[in-house]
Amino acid sequence: xxxxxxxxxxxxxxxxxxxxxxxxxxxxxxxxxxxxxxxxxxxxxxxxxxxxxxxxxxxxxxxxxxxxxxxxxxxxxxxxxxxxxxxxxxxxxxxxxxxxxxxxxxxxxxxxxxxxxxxxxxxxxxxxxxxxxxxxxxxxxxxxxxxxxxxxxxxxxxxxxxxxxxxxxxxxxxxxxxxxxxxxxxxxxxxxxxxxxxxxxxxxxxxxxxxxxxxxxxxxxxxxxxxxxxxxxxxxxxxxxxxxxxxxxxxxxxxxxxxxxxxxxxxxxxxxxxxxxxxxxxxxxxxxxxxxxxxxxxxxxxxxxxxxxxxxxxxxxxxxxxxxxxxxxxxxxxxxxxxxxxxxxxxxxxxxxxxxxxxxxxxxxxxxxxxxxxxxxxxxxxxxxxxxxxxxxxxxxxxxxxxxxxxxxxxxxxxxxxxxxxxxxx
Length: 426
Ligand code: KE4
What we know:
Blueprint (H helix, E strand, L loop, with lengths): L1 H13 L21 E5 L2 E4 L4 E4 L14 H11 L10 H13 L5 E5 L2 H16 L3 E5 L16 H6 L9 H4 L2 E4 L4 H10 L4 E6 L15 H12 L2 E5 L11 H6 L5 E4 L10 E5 L1 H4 L18 H16 L2 H23 L5 E5 L2 E5 L8 H4 L4 H13 L2 E2 L8 E2 L6 H17 L1
Parallel strand pairs: 3-13, 5-6, 5-7, 7-8, 8-9
Antiparallel strand pairs: 1-2, 2-3, 4-10, 9-10, 11-12, 12-14
Helix pairs in contact: 2-11, 3-11, 7-8, 12-15, 14-15
The structure holds ligand KE4.
């Protein structure tokens, strides 16, 4: 990894931690992150020419794999007409119409440029529509880095050990209340203590920023019931689960209706795209048709839309992909459990749809507190053992393993063999 080590030293002089997003810096696992030069299918290559089977997939967007030909062709075609106009384009309508067709319970969409922007906007809409100010989120869930969401945040904030960021003022985050995932009593207590003040609950339908913690039976349904009872809105943050759990995302997968849904990652096909969506009644409150302001220079960028449309069209036409991804995720999770038993490793593997996460503990992991039981030193050894064997997973216990369409059975088998070899050495 000589070339990556050399450029990482340069990078650290001009980029905080040498990266443009903290979790990429390997701070939780140590060592030098490989600088990636190329991706094709489920494989990526670093500056030293080392090949990896990629189970990060740019943190979820590349569900069809890297350099997927129809997506590249769509981008190439779009870019030849220009990169951006700051004016309406037909392809934005095509993407919005397809999102509305694929996702239950939404009638209108607004494109933005990231999941963070989608969530930030959705919170403003919820507050604007209800006239209320407080928001309930869950400890360990991550909804991007807008101030109000950097309270008890997961993902990189958790990896850094700073779930509440410096620079976030009481004014910005004082209306954010935190409950415990899979604990409806903790949510009820907040409604009891803040009657008629709660605008919305925002939840990751599968908590995929504290590792992977699926909703227990009745949890999402309970949130829906409380929002109905107290006239608050239910926001599903589907930046990860959207178009990954099912064609219609978590609403389809769990049969629970959200009032506002946020998207990112997959809808951009690898390009910077986010979106939020809801009923016409809610969305017409958004500027320019309503008093809730939100804007963006590159929102709906035609080249990014081309990438997203190409990827979404393929997912729309191949709903069988979802059972295939789930089958592979189940197989990998079970293989991990079998290897752990064979090598006497304390391990719990959570899996939901195409998402999975191993925790180095024998105890069940159903809450944020449970995730802290994982032996982080063992995770670190596991991570580096896998990387050395050409398996690229997220450099943090508090992230997911992303199974994509591009992973063939042989790729899953190769990863499971690496797991077995790594566990033998732990
Ligand atoms: P972005 O602003 O990073 O596009 O999306 C923020 C976001 C919102 N909601 C959920 C549920 C998310 O998972 C994310 C971002 N996910 C992380 C990975 N766990 C992004 C990786 C990173 O921060 O580099």
